[in-house]
Amino acid sequence: MIYNDVSQWVKNEGEEPIVLSSRVRLARNLDHVLFPTVASANDFKVVQDYVHPILSSQYDELSMKDVTAVERLMLVEKHLISPTLTKNSEGSVYISKEEDVSIMVNEEDHIRIQTLSNTLDIEALYNQALAIDQEIDQEVNYAFDEKLGYLTSCPTNLGTGLRASVMLHLPALAMLDKMPQLNYSIQRFGFLVRGIFGEGSRDLGHVYQISNQVTLGKTEQDIIDDLIYIVHNVINQEKEARQALYNHYEVQLEDQFLRSYGILKYSKLIDLKEASQRLSEVKLAYDLGMIETKPFNFHEMMVKIQPAFIRYKTNENENLYRAQLIQQHLTMKQ
Amino acid sequence: MIYNDVSQWVKNEGEEPIVLSSRVRLARNLDHVLFPTVASANDFKVVQDYVHPILSSQYDELSMKDVTAVERLMLVEKHLISPTLTKNSEGSVYISKEEDVSIMVNEEDHIRIQTLSNTLDIEALYNQALAIDQEIDQEVNYAFDEKLGYLTSCPTNLGTGLRASVMLHLPALAMLDKMPQLNYSIQRFGFLVRGIFGEGSRDLGHVYQISNQVTLGKTEQDIIDDLIYIVHNVINQEKEARQALYNHYEVQLEDQFLRSYGILKYSKLIDLKEASQRLSEVKLAYDLGMIETKPFNFHEMMVKIQPAFIRYKTNENENLYRAQLIQQHLTMKQ
């Protein structure tokens, strides 16, 4: 399942097309073991020995040493592990059947608990992560300071150890060049806008992640409440931008989007950047009722067209396979 | 017919897809009337009075004064009159039912006899034009000099008054950037390469006209023989260029051509230049067996997408109508 398809919760689309996913992550460390950034092979083993009995009965374990380079990258593309974990062969990840929970061990921190969903119910994701956290807490001693809170490898995670993020499809704000301004105003609240895979992936398919920058000096509830407030605000801005685009450029937009559809439908070779942009445009056109395609799951497509996802399936030319894949999924209504 | 559709001989495609059309033109003037470049309204009338009785029973007459600006441009787009004739309201044209003969009166010269076809049989076109020439010659006195031959307004037409030209679809030579070199070598033989509508239209749909530059000091037979020799040579070069493209860039070409098909099939707005280029690419792909479209007549499409042709049909946005028109004509084989 993990290597053959996108996660089930991605396949089941959420209610709001602008929201692709929400994610909560808790960073935790054991208090008597060196942190992974300075740990030895033996330290990694100690962590594993603590965690394995707690998690292995409930989750599938994947040890990085048993996983090929392509498979590691696929797990990153599915947001089940971080790029950091791919670099540590002593690391491992525990994944739920539905692929909506992943617990990384020996990543930048000893334990990173992550929960994912296709809705905006971050509260529920947090509670789900917290339950796992408490289960582990009963068996280990976390590195915790009365004043600072949970201790982490990187000071940006200190305190709550909580990172909550929402992945949004914001094509209209991007087309109207509103993203820098949005990013600026969000930063003032201690939140960040990044691309689909964090820094450096900005603009791929007009997909953006909004997450808290600050983990210290705010309660978990405040972080979650502020994120939900900001995300609702951004969704409204995107909706207004879509309406503005539609009102001012209807025919030109329809031309642009239909051309993108035509290219997706007939190209023989298509790279990731172009495919992402054109899929985003067709999705926007679909959401605006400008193109009568059969419903298609944009998030699912954005995962399936990623390089490692394709490399795992085929030795064919990546751009050739990507074009064929899109053509199988995208169809106009007759 | 003239304003509602393309000429019948264009609809009946020729045998060689690279050859769109051949054309022969004879320039003639009456010897006792001022040439059109310096003529008065009365001189124009004198010419008309001579020519009308000879031609009006065999051909449909269109006087420029009865023809709207859009209709004049359409006649140019159909190659039935020259841009020069559109500027003289005292001018007129006699056109055969099949639109394969057009005789312009009071253009740059008093009489210009033109014959057109979709084959390379320039000999037959010349004989057809000559028969009309002789019919007129029986009733009028041509301006003719024993030493110089037929006298014309512009010295470039002096002598035989013959211009023979062939319109070719040369996408592979154009894509390989061979046209400047080809033009250079052809000029050395006294021939010229121009775009589909003469100078300034270069590159529109990769359609090129090859015609003789010299009308003096060569017999009609030499001009025709040389043209046929050169055209056969160019056709062979184009065929070699197509094979070279196919051998070296098969997948990339297929991608480029299929994208052009997709854009033609789905764009909402398309301008003349882009439509011409993409139709040319799809036609090349069809000729190379790379795209399985239903057969389509490239020459016919190149006429139908011209601005005046569209303006006559509709008051809608030109680019909108052009896109719809192409979508009606272009279909993939199922």
From TrEMBL, chains A, B:
InterPro entries recorded for this chain?
Arg_Kinase (IPR023660), ATP-guanido_PTrfase (IPR000749), ATP-guanido_PTrfase_AS (IPR022415), ATP-guanido_PTrfase_cat (IPR022414), Gln_synth/guanido_kin_cat_dom (IPR014746)
**Catalytic activity reported:** L-arginyl-[protein] + ATP = N(omega)-phospho-L-arginyl-[protein] + ADP + H(+)
Q: Tell me, what is one Gene Ontology molecular-function annotation carried by this entry?
A: protein arginine kinase activity
- The record's EC number reads 2.7.14.1
Gene3D superfamilies named among the record's database cross-references = Glutamine synthetase/guanido kinase, catalytic domain (3.30.590.10)
A GO BP term here is: phosphocreatine biosynthetic process
Q: Which CDD domains match?
A: bacterial_phosphagen_kinase (cd07930)
What keyword terms does UniProt attach to this protein?
ATP-binding, Kinase, Nucleotide-binding, Transferase
- Which top class of enzyme applies to this chain? transferase
A Pfam family annotated for this UniProt entry: ATP-gua_Ptrans
The similarity comment for this entry is:
Belongs to the ATP:guanido phosphotransferase family.
Purpose of the protein:
Catalyzes the specific phosphorylation of arginine residues in proteins.
Report what the protein is called. Answer: Protein-arginine kinase
Q: Which organism is it from?
A: Abyssicoccus albus
Q: List the taxonomic lineage.
A: Bacteria, Bacillati, Bacillota, Bacilli, Bacillales
User: What gene is this protein translated from?
Assistant: mcsB
